[in-house]
Structure formats: structure tokens, C-alpha cells
Amino acid sequence: MKKTLVLALAATTALGTGAFAQEITEFRIGILGGENAQDRMNSYQCLADYTTEELGVETKLFAPADYNGVIQGLLGGTIDMAWLGASAYAATYLQDPEAVEPVMVKVNLDGSIGYHSIGFARKDAGITSLEDMQGKVFGFGDPNSTSGYLIPSIEIPQAGEGITMEPGEYFADVVFTGGHEQTIVAVNNGDIDGGVTWADGQGNWEDGYNSGALRKAVDAGLVDMNELVEIWKSEVIPEGPVVLRTALPADVKEKMTTLVDNLYETDPECTYGVFAGDSLGAKPVTHATYTSIVEARKAEIGG
């Protein structure tokens, strides 16, 4: 009996310290919406290859149709790593504070880690401001997007008297397009009058700025930025974190954090695809960077 008890206690101690942590047989990376699924997979394939080499297991990429697919994958343990927007991270944290750990954050060319929600319209529509959007259709990407909904829903009503986000009040309609690329294409095609997306706000408008959804759309040949005009710009938003599932073995988390940390030095072209344009790669980040976004998200959902 004593021997059995001692063995049981030893096993419990080992489990507590992670010595008996379950070995992974594959590694699964989730990719938030923003582009069509195949383009997202193509942009991340280099990261998947490096991951397989580093961990010695097969790496699978998942590109769900919406942000919630990645969030639920992380919460349910079917996705191990993802680059989340700040609001998607807040949504994950509010459902389970222990589910994921923020480990790295993208760094802009000037060393900052912020970006903006950008309101835009077609130049030939004669819309140059939110005032010109009165009575028109405004498009937003995804309810779980920081720049594609959360921040605009807070800041746009503060930008002018009488502006609300209720469909049919100030704007003729407020619609969700499904993602950043969908918003850009819808505005460019004239399906909606204006929309919001994300960009670092650095560099040249005609390039789609240095990084972000507009830059990716330009690279893909989807838009000519000279045919679009900026009509609104948010305050600086903290760039979302690369997160790892907390339950992963410690050595896996350490290896993946180091891999992302060194990716820019290892392969700038891969970094360009993963981080949606020009950047300096990534640097460490903690939950503290996102406390204001978590509070904003709680307030928005009435939590």
C-alpha cells in the first residue's frame, strides 16, 4: 500500500511540473480571416514548414470562415497557435482567461506596435468624411474584429453629432461583410458605400500603407488605392498578439516563441506574408498590453 501511495504521489508531482506533459503528435496553427482562405494558407505555409522542422511533427494550417472559428479552436484545444487581433484575444480571454498565452506582437517599421482602423470609400463616390456617409451603407468586417468592428463601433459615434451604429438611423444600413478583404472588395465594387479595415497607417496610401489588409489587397491586385480615399482613422490600437495554447508542453511553447521571435532575421519574405506586409518581425508581449481592449470588449457586450 505504501509503495502504491508513493508512486501515486510521485506521478501527481510529475504531472504538476509538466514532466509527464502529453507529447504532441501534430501542431495546429489557426489563421484569422482577412483574405480568402487559400491566400491565407499560402502566406502561412513557410511558417508551417519552419514549425515542422523545429518541432519534428506535422504542422496543419486552419483558416476558418470567421474569427470565431479560430477563437473556438483555441478554447477547445483544436488550435495551438494563432495571430489574433486584440479584440479576438479579448474574446478568448473573457471566455477562458487560462486558455491561451500572448507571447509575441508584430513590430512596425518605426518600432511601434500599434495600428489603425481605417474608414475608406471610392474616390468617385464623392465621399470624403463620415458626414458624407449619412444615409449610406457602411460595411464592417467581423463582430470579433478589433479594427473591423469593436473600435469603430466605439469611436465612430464619438466622431460627430448624431452618428450612431444603429442601422437606419445615421447610416442607411450597417452590414457585416465577413472579413477585411470582403470589405475592401465590396467598397471597390460599389456594393457598399464605405467600409473599415486595418493598416499600420505608415508609409504611402497608394501602397496600402506599409502593412495591413489594404497592403495585402494591393499585393493581390484587388484594388488600386488611387481609386479609394480615406474618410476616417481611429486612434492607435495595440497590435494583436501571437498566442499559444496554455496547455501545450513548456518546451513546445518555448520553441515556438523563439521561432516567431527570430522569423524576421531568418526569413523576411516569410515574415512579410505572415504579418501582412512590411514589419520588423515580432517582440515579446504580455496580457498587460491588452487590458484596455478587454475592458472595451466587456463594455461593448455588456459584460
From TrEMBL:
- A single Pfam family it belongs to is Phosphonate-bd
Q: Per its UniProt entry, which superkingdom is the organism in?
A: Bacteria
Q: What Gene Ontology terms describe where this protein resides (cellular component)?
A: ATP-binding cassette (ABC) transporter complex
Which segment of the chain is annotated as a signal peptide?
1-21
The UniProt keywords, alphabetically, are: Signal
Q: Which GO terms describe its biological process?
A: organic phosphonate transport; transmembrane transport
Output the SUPFAM superfamilies linked to this UniProt entry.
Periplasmic binding protein-like II
InterPro entries to which the protein is assigned, alphabetical:
PhnD, Phosphnate-bd
Is Ion transport there in the keyword field?
no
Family per similarity comment: Belongs to the phosphate/phosphite/phosphonate binding protein family.
The protein in question is named Phosphonate ABC transporter substrate-binding protein
Gene name in the database record = phnD
